[in-house]
Amino acid sequence: MKVVHNWHRTPLGRVTRFLGSLNLAVPVMVFVAAALAWGTYLESAHDVKVARATVYGSWWFITLMGLICVSLVFAVVTRFPWKRKHVGFMTVHASLIALIIGGFWSLFGRVEGQLPLEAGTASNVITTDAEQVELLRRQDGVFQTVAVAALEYGKQALGVGGTRLEVLERWDNSRDEAYVTDDAPAPFRAVEIAIDVPSAAATEGIWVGEESHGGGAAIEQGLRIRVLAAGQPWVTSQAVTTGYIFVAGGKEVPLGDEGSEITPGWKIESIRRLARAMVTGAGLEDAPGSPENPAVEVAITDEKGSREQHRAFLNFPDMVMGKPLTGEARSGLKLIVRAPDTGGESIVIHGVPPALSVAYTGLDNTVQEFASAGPFPWTFKAGPRTITIHNQYANARAASRLVQAPKSGENRPALLVRLPDQPAEDATPLLWRQPTPLPIPVAEGQDPVIVRFGPRLVVLPYTIKLTEFRKHDYPGTDMAMSYESDVSVALADGTTKAATISMNEPFTGEAWKVYQSGFIGADVSVFSVMKDPGLPLTYIGCIGLCIGIVLTFYSRPLSNGHPGIPALFGSSTNGHGRKEQFDVPSDSERMPLPLVPAAAHGTGPAVPAEAGRLEVQPGFDPGAGRRSHHAAGHLCAPVGGCAHGTHEVVRR
Question: For position 1, what pLDDT does the model report?
């Protein structure tokens, strides 16, 4: 802004002019525009939580918006002393500041959540989009919340009660991944094998367990894979037991008749053979008309009150099903099915770990034998195939773990957390809404605590009960045309208020609004509940901005002097470079404006003032010194007085 008042020349005035100038406002607005573009991209590529944590709620974005507010305030301050002509200008700036403050108030103070209700049920607790971590302890048989900490997106440390948790990573989605570990309490051999995969690309394979437990040979790319128990011998000519077999450790017993002994102390009580087996709620049944699915159901007993049931399916040899029926004793037996070997390629893995031996039988029944004592991976050529053994476990066990997964329709976010004294590799994933035990120290005699990662729950100041839900469909379709809910609201003062909430008619009470947002089925109504403390200020800012714009562009008495509107007085060269003439009445209240001789600037002899030539400095504003009592066209400088008579302005 140009120097207009004497106080503008003071040090404080110069600072004020800079803070209220476009030199500050324009760069800040450029940065804000870039930040908004980035936030919009993050919101579309990820979600609103990421955009808020990265941009809208960040300290640097708040700082930028604060600088805009400072610029707006000082743009008004620089015009002090204010007059009536500044009303429109000040209204616009004040409204913009109100919009910014209202927006941040809503960003950090808004609470919104969902409240699903079934007809006849009531609740005063809503589920919000905000996330939190809770510590739970069992009290009187029920888990009670003992501490809560709000979780911001990307936050790296949490203090929950007296416990500190470090958040290493947040997963937007997760899935359960099966893997094999070598810590089973009983011996069980398993190998990780890849078939016809180049060694350079063979980073993992499939796990195959010993057939005595798994129900038979595995088939991968047409190759039968048999894994024998550790120490179990194999010879080329040995016969392989086929059909239904009871196994316990390395011992195999073909299924006999009812009453026959399987192992010392256990006998077959009954046998059911089914041709078209189907598992139903009533158990295993023979379903006529179904595809062939041979199966057998066997009951065994120790004749001391303990009984077990075992099932096996010919078409599904990997499905091993057994359960106790009565008693405490356990046989340790498994019923498997092994189909006859119909020829083709096969390999048999045997030996005593860590040594590993492999026998390969080709299509022409020729046998190749290979042996290795490690290390893994071990790659060898068996006939036309390339076989890679990645690993072998002597005490293999199937386990499951939670891993990060791409976003999908199934929303299962998770937090990867650890205690401060834990190594990073021992971090524990907290699955959404699933209580998880952590080794958190507790006082002697107290029950251990568990940790829960889930949504923030907010208690409303009143209880809503769904009386009836109604949905009206478009004629001839199942598409909802409208839906509404009759509710009764139990207020804090003990009174009850009946209301009907529809799509366009929310219920308002205690600063909260309850909207009809959806439904589930025919009886469950879903309400969206919101409290936004910044909304009134936002409305005020919008209304004020509209009023200020109208005053600025349509009310000259309330907006005269606004820098966005050209002055209707003064003179300058027009768009074609021609000089414009105007008449300047005399003004006895101001000193004559000193004229500079033209000859001093190499433009020729000086021209007297009465001749009408006036040479001015660069940047001179002919109307800057004009006052309200001056006539239109009066030529005055900010300092030095007014020019008299008719003059022609000549700029240097």
Answer: 61
